[in-house]
Amino acid sequence: MATRKLLLLPGDGIGPETMAEVRKLIGFMNESHGAGFEIEEGLVGGSAYDAHGKSISEEDMAKADAADAVLFGAVGGPKWDSVAYDVRPEAGLLRLRKDMELFANLRPAICYPALSDASSLKKDVIEGLDILIVRELTGGVYFGEPKEIIDLGNGQKRGIDTQVYDTYEIERIAGVAFELARTRQNKVTSMEKRNVMKSGVLWNEVVTRTHAEKYSDVALDHMLADAGGMQLVRWPKQFDVIVCDNLFGDMLSDVAAMLTGSLGMLPSASFGAPDGKTGMRKALYEPVHGSAPDISGKGLANPIAMIASFAMCLRYSFDMVKEAEMLEKAIADVLENGLRTTDIAAPHAETVSTSEMGDAVLERF
Amino acid sequence: MATRKLLLLPGDGIGPETMAEVRKLIGFMNESHGAGFEIEEGLVGGSAYDAHGKSISEEDMAKADAADAVLFGAVGGPKWDSVAYDVRPEAGLLRLRKDMELFANLRPAICYPALSDASSLKKDVIEGLDILIVRELTGGVYFGEPKEIIDLGNGQKRGIDTQVYDTYEIERIAGVAFELARTRQNKVTSMEKRNVMKSGVLWNEVVTRTHAEKYSDVALDHMLADAGGMQLVRWPKQFDVIVCDNLFGDMLSDVAAMLTGSLGMLPSASFGAPDGKTGMRKALYEPVHGSAPDISGKGLANPIAMIASFAMCLRYSFDMVKEAEMLEKAIADVLENGLRTTDIAAPHAETVSTSEMGDAVLERF
Ligand SMILES: CC(C)[C@H](C(=O)O)[C@@H](O)C(=O)O
Ligand SMILES: CC(C)[C@H](C(=O)O)[C@@H](O)C(=O)O
């Protein structure tokens, strides 16, 4: 049997405590089912900075490169607010994305039936929501040059960031969105600000052409990103797949995630291009939520997003579809049974701890 | 008595029909109260393009410059989707903002009590909401250079936009936000992406310093813009004044406006710096909603955002505070009385037309 090489990068804040719950699952799968996962561990973010002054080490980058998949927790926190820009916690994550060329970030925004009350939106607006945001992850204003602060003298500085998109970058992310739409409701909404940004003009043009040339069976809409944000709030169920650039994807996927009331539940996956020989895609899986420093170390974190990220990993990186489905079913069962961490509990309702939630999922798995 | 010079730029879509309702109010104030408004009119956006091939003419720019205030409707629509970038409808609006140096855009997101049902959010989340987004309007990725599409050959193009902020631009918008906070709940939340953008690092630094030097009596928070979008959806009442750059302000203010369910009700104001001699600020007032081409010409548009923009104009450009309050009271009365245009009506409820709504406000004014 093939070995399955996993790199775990728990990171900061609630990253380690949620990753611990995934480690239990992996242990169980290895022991009881001989799943053969080989686990490496590494440091990223503020904890890496504290250990050796960089937000990810070359050794850990090499491990990421050698792994079949990376499981990532979360990075950042006020503790590192004043460290230098190049070694800030987020730099580790951005380097992983860029060096592994993980250009396609999939962020499902799903409202778990048992949780539609946890949303700030009205039940009929949010119930049954199941949309997928496909975010470009290695381009745009995140990585374009120049990106700098210039001293202009006289107490004046200038901050500069550059949004850059090339045709091929837009083509490949659009392709991912259209392919995924075919497995869903067959509808893509592309969002940009073509009325203000030249990269938006190009984005719109390339998505339109890619659609016409290869995916005209899929329904395609274009929306300005600000109007898209509005429509997400007004009636999110109008969408199936949303495709957008790195920065709009960051904003819109966070808004979409929060709409569901299930932020602590939502996984994400980031993929590279398929390898020419093996067909394998480099992949990193991470919860949509952040490091939540305010609740870290207290056993309050919801481990489900991290566990659901592992389920995505089973499905997409190891073709273990049955196991992925079983794990997702276990999560749904636990919720149906009324188990709640504080983030998804009704006011004054009983709650369980991070590890109790993890154990409950493991039990039903 | 001083003359009061107003330039009306109705623009496209529902712009003209909503502006018509303001014209009635101005006519009434001139005739019955000798208000002395001198009205000029001009074209902007697609209608200007149709008339003379530019999205605003030099004559109309000169009129804007000579006016005490500009009332702006809305621009854009699918009709002009394929006109050249430089003469697209939005270019007229962007030129007005830039040439008049209207750097401070004030966007209140208010939930009118009579309308809390129109929101997609739960009543307790949205009821009583009253926040103010202060958006920088003449800088950032909207205007930075280079902004272009380069042909790279081999079918590849590159789209580039540049986000640029200088210290003084951040200082002056932060100053506006802090000043306004003092007249409200005394709290400012500054939003950027300092974990990804150098302009965000500078933004954070300058806001922090401006606060420490001049406004330490105001409470100041910093939030990453993506987290800010989430928090707006989760519990918007945690905010008082939000200050952010041009692009984040565009996204966040649209999300905030839609939260209220009162999009057709929300005005905005854009100000320049006070004139050294007269103390007057250049100003442009416009509804937050867009040109809504799908409903234009049908008498379905809600004129209240446009009328409320005129109320802001009375208050801020002409110091007619009593009249502004009377007009705002008239709007509230009309709503209390149950009058609804389709956008804010319950399903199957009776609705009034644009001009009926305008007349009803005028009657109570
Ligand atoms: C941590 C940060 C760099 C990151 C981003 O902005 O991409 C995060 O917000 C995300 O969405 O994954
Ligand atoms: C019409 C468009 C250029 C404009 C913007 O992006 O600023 C609009 O969305 C707004 O928010 O006023």
> Outline of chain A, from the CA principal axes?
globular
What is the helix fraction of residues of chain A, given as a range? 40-55%
**Secondary-structure element string of chain A:** EHEHHEHEHEEEHEHEHEHEEHHH
Q: Mean pLDDT of chain A, rounded to whole units? A: 96
Q: How would you classify the quaternary structure?
A: homodimer
Annotation, overall tally of beta strands of chain A: 12
Query: From the 3D coordinates, which CATH architecture of the largest domain in chain A would you assign?
Result: 3-Layer(aba) Sandwich
Largest interface: A-B, 62 and 62 residues
End-to-end Cα distance of chain A, whole Å, is 22 Å
Query: CATH superfamily membership of the largest domain in chain A, which one?
Result: Isopropylmalate Dehydrogenase
Strand line-up in the sheet with most strands of chain A: 2-1-3-12-11-4-5-10-8-9
CATH domain class of the largest domain in chain A: Alpha Beta
- The CATH topology of the largest domain in chain A corresponds to Isopropylmalate Dehydrogenase
Ligands, deduplicated: 3-isopropylmalic acid
Strand residue content of chain A: 15-25%
Low-confidence sequence ranges of chain A: none
C-alpha Rg of chain A (nearest Å): 20 Å
From the helix content, strand content and strand pairing of chain A, which structural class follows? alpha/beta
How many structurally independent domains of chain A? 2
Biggest sheet descriptor of chain A = 10 strands, mixed
Binding site for Mg(2+) (chains A, B): 226, 250, 254
Binding site for NAD(+) (chains A, B): 77-90, 290-302
Family (chains A, B): Belongs to the isocitrate and isopropylmalate dehydrogenases family. LeuB type 1 subfamily.
Organism (chains A, B): Hoeflea prorocentri
